[in-house]
Amino acid sequence: MKILVINPNSTLSMTMQIADSARRCAFPGTVIEAINPKGTPASIEGHADEAMSVPAMLDLIRAGEARGVDAYVIACFDDPGLAAAREIAAGPVIGICQAAVQVATTIATRFSIVTTLPRSVPIIEDLVEAYGAGHRCRAVRAVDMPVLALEQDPTTAEARLIREIEAARDVDGAEAVVLGCAGMSDLCDRLQLQTGMPVIDGVTAAVKLAEGLVGGGYATSKIGAYDYPRAKSACVLAQTA
């Protein structure tokens, strides 16, 4: 089984960290490839960054289809371009937010999410609502640090994450916490050990879900909305003298 993990931003060091997290949890027979596009934003922090990252990400999926990739993981918590990616892929395409939310609602009755910047809070709230879990999500919290600061200042990032996870438990009444950024995946085990809370990393959740779907023989439906895009000829505007 071959899973292509795509970090939609262009930061190679984050891609390598995501790849390590994915490989640690994968079954021995699973081949994990991790890649990021070139020319996309260095981090994805809002709708504009999402939009700029999607075309290059779709190109990587098209290339993966030609190479026989079995499933794809979109390793950004905003799940950018998820529906479009499912249109062009035969196998499952898993967004790490949707995967993490599905795990959270399976192992706990109530959960909170801890993300990076406050501006990401409404984006994630809308996603959780779209995934049908708005009534189960107690809060979306932010550590108020840019995405790239997670690796530039890991000590501060970890301290703030611990503080927000404890607040999710003590203030929100959450029974589990979801890490709302792929760049946090390498901290998951330590955060769980230090807080005593179940901590869910979307990268791990997405890889395991992808393995399960491929192993079970499930592919992306091509009846209706996720059907392959229709071929269209280029529209040429006539020029007038």
What is the topological layout?
Elements: E1 2-6, H1 12-25, E2 31-35, H2 47-66, E3 71-74, H3 82-88, E4 93-95, H4 96-107, E5 111-115, H5 120-130, E6 137-142, H6 149-152, H7 154-172, E7 176-179, H8 188-195, E8 199-201, H9 202-215
Parallel strand pairs: 1-2, 1-3, 3-4, 5-6, 5-7, 7-8
Helix pairs in contact: 1-9, 4-9
InterPro entries: Asp/Glu/hydantoin_racemase, Hydantoin_racemase-like, Iso_Racemase_Enz_sf
Pfam family, one: Asp_Glu_race
EC number: 5.1.99.5
Describe the model.
Its EC number is 5.1.99.5. It is an enzyme of class 5 (isomerase). GO terms for molecular function: amino-acid racemase activity; hydantoin racemase activity. InterPro entries: Asp/Glu/hydantoin_racemase, Hydantoin_racemase-like, Iso_Racemase_Enz_sf. It catalyses: D-5-benzylhydantoin = L-5-benzylhydantoin; a D-5-monosubstituted hydantoin = a L-5-monosubstituted hydantoin; D-5-isobutylhydantoin = L-5-isobutylhydantoin. There is one protein chain. With 241 residues, the chain is of the alpha/beta class. The chain has two domains: 2-95 and 204-215, Rossmann fold (3-Layer(aba) Sandwich), CATH 3.40.50.12500; 97-202, Rossmann fold (3-Layer(aba) Sandwich), CATH 3.40.50.12500. 45% of the residues lie in helices and 15% in strands. The protein contains nine helices and eight strands. The protein has helices at 12-25, 47-66, 82-88, 96-107, 120-130, 149-152, 154-172, 188-195, 202-215, and strands at 2-6, 31-35, 71-74, 93-95, 111-115, 137-142, 176-179, 199-201. The chain has a four-stranded parallel sheet with strand order 2-1-3-4, with helices on both faces. It has a four-stranded parallel sheet with strand order 6-5-7-8, sandwiched between helices. Helix 3 (82-88) links the parallel strand 3 and strand 4 (93-95). Helix 1 (12-25) packs across helix 9 (202-215). The longest helix has 20 residues, at 47-66. The radius of gyration is 18 Å and the shape is globular. It starts with a strand and ends in a 26-residue tail after the last helix. The relative contact order is 0.17. The model has no long low-confidence stretch (mean pLDDT 95).
